[in-house]
Each structure stands twice: as structure tokens, then as C-alpha cells.
Amino acid sequence: MGCSATLLPTPPYVRRHSTSPCPSLSSPHINRRNLLFLSTTLTFPTTISISTSVAAPPPPPDITITERVFLDFSICPNYFTNRNLGDDLSNCADSEPIGRLVLGLYGNLVPITVSNFKAMCTGSSGSTYKGTLVQKIFPGQFFMAGRQGRRDKGEVKPPLKLIRNVESIESKAFLLEHSRAGIVSLPLSENDDDDDLKLNPNYHNVEFLITTGPGPCPQLDSKNIVFGTVLEGLDIVTTIASIPTYKPSENIRQYNDFAELIGDGRAKTARAIWNKPLKTVYISDCGELKVAKPTLSPSLP
Fold this sequence. Notes:
The protein is an alpha+beta fold. Helix content is about 20%, strand content about 15%. The protein starts with about 30 loop residues before the first helix and ends in a 13-residue tail after the last strand.
């Protein structure tokens, strides 16, 4: 038989099972399942926006050297006899000069700390570092000077013309590390002044420390304010660091720890002489160094 060219439409609810040897001439039927299959197999161009922006890193600390000052150090052989450097260092006429340090200060980073330190070097603060002692030397780490107290004991008299240093609560003041010898820093955590002295309305923390090397002092980082560096005189720093200091015996240390544990105030008084140099090292002169270019090239801390 031949195939009829005219076909009746197949009802949608009847499955199409072709048993005829002739191909169907009707349009192909596309049901819902076919549409779903096509939608999952066909690909369409899409545009996906992915943000790849990364926050810019903060700028490095500004360690431009804006000021230069000097500190001359000497040894007074007569101090242990009188416990007094005398007026205008009269008791140290036969002093032995050690040498001069030239310090570069980071005035853009911590302007108040630098201004106060410079004022102590020039005497414009109403006080000065001249004629004051190096009170502590920690071998292989740092030495400290500039403790406020009694002038007749070689300590700094209260400076009345300094402004309060609010940089001690600013995070940017603690960015630099004590990474090598010759770092100049304002000690906050290492400051061991008496509490009664700190309650004095005229009290200003004008102590400073200088790292002596040979390695870094990470225990000082994030606790003290680095505000300068030694530009000249690292050999002088090494000389000061090599001066012998008072070291208590192990028995004394244990007794002191016990006294502190039970609240004996004499424990802190006894510790005041620990790490003191056995030679009287003092600042025989200090001041500002004028330069042709007030702003010098940065120096790494």
C-alpha cells in the first residue's frame, strides 16, 4: 500500500509510536520535558562582574630627619665621693670625655616628642640634659638617661615649659621598631620613676633610651616611641654599653622577689640601683646642630 499524504493530527494525550514504514510528515512535537532539556544544555553568553580591587596599603611612616642635636658624654671620677656633680659640673673638673653623639630626629612622625626632646637639649624647656646622669645600662640592649628628679643627684629638674605629650596615646607613634643599635626612643614601659614623682603636676617624661646592639630589642616594640636615630657616634654608644653595672646576686634577687610578693615597698627601692653603671657617666654638654638644609633625607630606623 502507499502512504497517505494526508494525516490526521494526533491527539496530545496519545503517545506516538510509529509502526508505519513511512516517515511521518507532521511537525516534530516538542513537549515540556524537551524544553527543560534544551534549557540545561544550551549555553548563553553571560557577563559576571567580579570585584578584584584590593585596599591600598597604608603609607610607610615618615622618617624624614627634620632636626639634629648632639649629646656629649663624659665620666666624672669624683661623683662617688660627693654624690653631687656640683653647680655647673664643678665637681667634675677632671672628667674624662667619652665622645659625642649626633642624633637625627623624626619631626614629621612625632612632632611633640621631638620638640620636647630638642627643648631639653637646648635648655629652652626651663631644664636641660646637661649635667645629668646615665642612670641605667642594660648590656646588649640599651641605656637610659634623662630621669626627672633632684638636680643635685644628677637628675633632670622639672621642665616647666614643655607641653603635654599626647602622642603617647596615638597608634602612629608606635609603628617603628627597635631593630638595631642606635635607635633613640622615649621609654614608657621601661620608665621606673616613683609614682609620687609622676603625680607631680610638673612631671614630664623626658627620659630617653638608646639601643646599643648588637641585635634588636623586640621587647621594646609597640611600647615605647621611636623618635630618632644615631647619625654619628655609634662607637660612643658601644663604649657606654661596655661600662660595668651593678648586678645583684641570685640570693638578693630571690629575696627581692619575695619582698615584692608580700608588698614590701623596700623591694622597689632596692631595685633602683640594679643595672646602674659603676662609673659615673653623664651628659657634659648638649644642644642643637644647625644644618644648611633643615629637612634631611630619610634615614632608616
